[in-house]
Amino acid sequence: MIRKLPIYTCLAAALVAQTAVAAAAPVGSSYSTIAAHNCWSASGKKDADDQSSRICRGKVGLVVSVNVGDMRETVSIGHNRAAAEKEPAAQAFFGPFSFASRTVEWRMAGSEPLAIIQRWDIDDNADQDRNGRPKPKPMLIVTRLPPGAVCHVAYVDVAANPDANELARQAADATARDFKCGQDQVKVLGKSGRAVELATQR
After folding, report:
1. How many whole angstroms separate alpha carbon 95 and alpha carbon 73?
2. Segment 60-70, tens digit of pLDDT
């Protein structure tokens, strides 16, 4: 006689199997862009430019929300604009003028996105060029993705760490999923430098 298992037992077994498959999936990188040609304006019109707030196509049904205000950008992720703009990352701006690179690196376990990595430039008012413009200091930001909240997980100073990309990928792969937004503190990986100093000053 064949015994019929309760439906919740079957669902639990399926969830465990799915989790095991995801855990075993190889982790790699995929890329998108927040350049204007891949975006539309926050008002919904296809007239975005790189200096405006905009919504951009991401990966696996996610969008990237870029908000620009007072020469400072924020970048957040969600299944739609409204969801992305409610996330902690949408409020994560820095004191100095700051801008994200147009390239977004998505760390993926198979088809499951774990985190994004972006290079940011943080303007250094204490270090200016001969025209009086602040020199930008580069930093990598690791941001965790849904399910769960979207927030910054780790900062890596590019100038201070020759292996900055590898450090950021390790954080994305190993710690982003378990990071608790609002409870855990953003980690500074590798050697700290001027970019991290500018980003964390209050």
Report:
1. 11
2. 999 999 999 88
